[in-house]
Design goal:
mainly alpha, about 5% strand
Length: about 120
């Protein structure tokens, strides 16, 4: 049973990896301009809390999953440190300077939602 589970998980990971690579190659082919060195060159990239990932330069599905998990953690942090604390300050009528932050929820929902 353990071997079957490991085999299933390995197959699922391989399928997701191939699907991810296939999807990126098709999207990037649709975005690429005639000349890759031109200013019009486009590709898929993600900016996460640790830096920029360009998925046209060999990054794979595993890196995307790491970035997505990091963004989920960042969202959790932002919600608890900024939004919920400031909501509590409002309820308690505490005087403070509002701290602005970029809410990444819409981006996360894009990736978490069904197609």
């Amino acid at each position: 049973r353990v071997d079957a589970t490991a085999t299933r998980d390995t197959l699922a990971k391989a399928l997701y990896t191939y699907l991810f690579d296939w999807l990126l190659s098709h999207v990037n082919r649709g975005l690429v301009a005639d000349n890759r060195k031109s200013e019009n060159y486009l590709s898929i990239g993600l900016l996460d809390i640790f830096g920029f990932e360009d998925f046209n330069d060999g990054n794979r599905f595993e890196q995307f999953c790491i970035n997505f998990a990091n963004e989920q953690l960042q969202h959790f942090f932002d919600q608890h440190i900024f939004k919920l604390e400031q909501d509590e300050y409002k309820r308690e009528k505490i005087t403070w300077t509002m701290v602005g932050y970029k809410d990444n929820e819409s981006c996360l929902e894009l990736f978490k939602g069904k197609p």
